[in-house]
Write a structure and sequence with these properties.
Residues 10-214 form the Cytochrome b561 domain. Keywords: Electron transport, Heme, Iron, Membrane, Metal-binding, Oxidoreductase, Transmembrane, Transmembrane helix, Transport. The chain crosses the membrane at residues 7-26, 46-69, 81-99, 111-138, 150-173, 193-216. Its cofactor is heme b. By secondary structure, this protein is mostly helical. 80% of the residues lie in helices and 0% in strands. It has 7 helices and no strands. The protein starts with 5 loop residues before the first helix and ends with a helix.
């Protein structure tokens, strides 16, 4: 894949690392995953795993796929759409899991900034996917309309992804704080270090996805034109 940004390869590597780390945390330290269990913590564990793998990892791969994959533009558009659809589906199950955990544990819903930003970001993600499908696939807008919408589609997509990355940081912080307040986590233990390291990997993943998507060449050419070079 000649011409692919080095940030794209870095994003792939960090995506794998983030996936491994979240699975190690949820299975080795937190006991595993389950949508139905008498141990309600196992139900909660589905939430961070699917939100990270879905919206952050697969959503990130969807974001960079349009520029990085070989093949025709139509093929890349279809992969872009399918990966975003899969990310949204996994995210929906992840959100269902945390509401189920709260309901069965008699914990109120939507009380934290993480919950507010998270649900808002997820709704924006879904709206972006629907508008993209209607505009670029079926029924499809006119050529001139698509040309004017594409920059906004790309900017809004990156904005939503950055929101998601930021909200992951809020989620890790919230969970660690709860565990520490309940004396279920050593502040300097291996689990705390793993979670903090995972959060950093996700942060760097977000930066790599954004940097791999930004068209530096086009920006440089536009800058040269603006100063008369």
């Amino acid at each position: 894949m000649a011409g692919v940004s080095p940030f794209t390869y870095l994003a792939h590597l960090l995506a794998v690392a983030a996936t491994v780390l979240i699975l190690v945390w949820s299975t080795h330290y937190r006991g595993g995953l389950a949508l139905n269990s008498s141990n309600k913590s196992l139900i909660f564990n589905v939430h961070p795993v699917l939100m990270l793998i879905g919206i952050i990892v697969i959503g990130g791969e969807a974001t960079i796929s349009y520029r990085s994959l070989p093949g025709s533009r139509d093929a890349r558009k279809r992969v872009h759409l399918m990966l975003h659809g899969l990310a949204l589906a996994l995210g929906a199950v992840g959100i269902y899991a945390v509401f189920k955990f709260h309901d069965e544990s008699k914990i109120p819903n939507m009380y934290s900034l993480h919950a507010w930003v998270g649900l808002g970001t997820f709704c924006l993600y879904g709206i972006q996917l629907i508008l993209g499908f209607v505009t670029f696939f079926f029924p499809g807008a006119s050529v001139s309309a698509r040309q004017s919408i594409i920059p906004w589609h790309a900017i809004l997509g990156l904005f939503i992804y950055i929101l998601a990355i930021g909200n992951v940081q809020l989620g890790f912080l919230e969970k660690l704080t709860f565990l520490q307040l309940l004396n279920k986590l050593d502040r300097y233990g291996s689990e705390a270090l793993l979670v903090n390291f995972t959060a950093l990997v996700v942060l760097f993943l977000g930066a790599a996805v954004v940097l791999s998507t930004v068209n530096f060449k086009a920006t440089r050419l536009e800058s040269q034109k603006s100063i008369g070079l």
